[in-house]
């Protein structure tokens, strides 16, 4: 894609210092910029690179001043970081602006879809599926029977959306996601063998939910597994049956949430966190990476460790843990002296 500096400045409502007609072809980091690249400077630590970058244009704050010669053109905006983020979002929209129905594809006659959709090759769409407007479903996706998909949803290649799933508006489902597979429900019989408990519920994703690549969200045994508005799930996360995750909670990669646990609003959960089933985690909770949560958590708590402790208590305990070899050595010396 090709744009002039003038076009980018107009999009960002910025002021140009330099040549407005110079053309831009690519986005780059400031230290790696070359002719035709557009970059940005938001962190003062990188100011040195403004004097060496070969990028054709650099987005900077309006109050930015340089004290040596520069060769890059400047686009001055209120907030360089936010402006560049807006540009990245626009770039993605343009890059992914596909429409139409490719072939081969299977769409059940009982299913429907709105205007301006993209349905990629080898996609399967089952019975009674309802797809909204401006939806993009990339190749090799599977959409099961009775699925509902809202407007402005993107489902990337290879994802599987099982029957009865409900996806709200403005959701992003990355590649190889599985939504609505059976929960892990088995019961032992009199012979000690495990028999499957039917999983008859579904999964509901509310609006503005992002699901990372390889993440799995299981259907409920009864009722619904619910991912509330604005939740962001990283790659390779396991969400078990009947879990509920509150609005605007974010969970990092490789974490797992066991069945029937309720997580509140605005929580931040680090990578590789394990959360047992049938507990309640309050609002505004922060859980550090690799923690193991085994009980209910009150609003506003910060946790770390396995089993997880209050963050302040964990920090104090860790200081002692690091000194255990020295303490053991001291105890051994005292024991020898006392004999």
Descriptive notes:
- With 339 residues, the chain is an alpha/beta fold.
- The chain folds into 2 domains: 3-95, Udp-n-acetylmuramoylalanyl-d-glutamate--2,6- Diaminopimelate Ligase, Chain: A, domain 1; 100-314, Hexapeptide repeat proteins (UDP N-Acetylglucosamine Acyltransferase, domain 1, 3 Solenoid), CATH 2.160.10.10.
- It is built from 4 helices and 40 strands.
- It has a 12-stranded mixed beta sheet, with helices on one face. Strands 9-12-15-18-21-26-29-32-35-38 form a 10-stranded parallel beta sheet, with no helix packed on it. Strands 10-13-16-19-24-27-30-33-36 form a 9-stranded parallel beta sheet, with no helix packed on it.
- The protein is flat, with a radius of gyration of 26 Å.
- The model has no long low-confidence stretch (mean pLDDT 93).
Fill in the keyword field for this structure.
339 residues, alpha/beta, Udp-n-acetylmuramoylalanyl-d-glutamate--2,6- Diaminopimelate Ligase, Chain: A, domain 1, UDP N-Acetylglucosamine Acyltransferase, domain 1, 2 domains, twelve-stranded mixed sheet, flat
Brief overview, please?
The protein is an alpha/beta fold and 339 residues long. It contains 4 helices and 40 strands. Helix content is 15%, strand content 29%.
Summed up, the helix count is 4
Strand order of the largest sheet: 8-11-14-17-20-25-28-31-34-37-39-40
CATH class of the largest domain: Mainly Beta
- CA-based shape: flat
Please write out the topology:
Blueprint: E1 3-4, H1 5-12, E2 15-17, E3 23-24, E4 26-27, E5 37-40, E6 57-61, E7 73-77, H2 80-95, E8 100-101, E9 106-107, E10 112-113, E11 118-119, E12 124-125, E13 130-131, E14 136-137, E15 142-143, E16 148-149, E17 154-155, E18 160-161, E19 166-167, E20 172-173, E21 178-181, E22 186-188, E23 194-196, E24 202-205, E25 210-211, E26 216-218, E27 224-227, E28 232-233, E29 238-239, E30 244-245, E31 250-251, E32 256-257, E33 262-263, E34 268-269, E35 274-275, E36 280-281, E37 286-287, E38 292-293, E39 302-304, E40 309-310, H3 311-322, H4 324-338
Parallel strand pairs: 4-5, 5-6, 6-7, 8-11, 9-12, 10-13, 11-14, 12-15, 13-16, 14-17, 15-18, 16-19, 17-20, 18-21, 19-24, 20-25, 21-26, 24-27, 25-28, 26-29, 27-30, 28-31, 29-32, 30-33, 31-34, 32-35, 33-36, 34-37, 35-38, 37-39
Antiparallel strand pairs: 1-3, 2-7, 22-23, 39-40
Family: Belongs to the transferase hexapeptide repeat family. LpxD subfamily.
Domain UDP-3-O-[3-hydroxymyristoyl] glucosamine N-acyltransferase non-repeat region: 24-89
Subunit structure: Homotrimer.
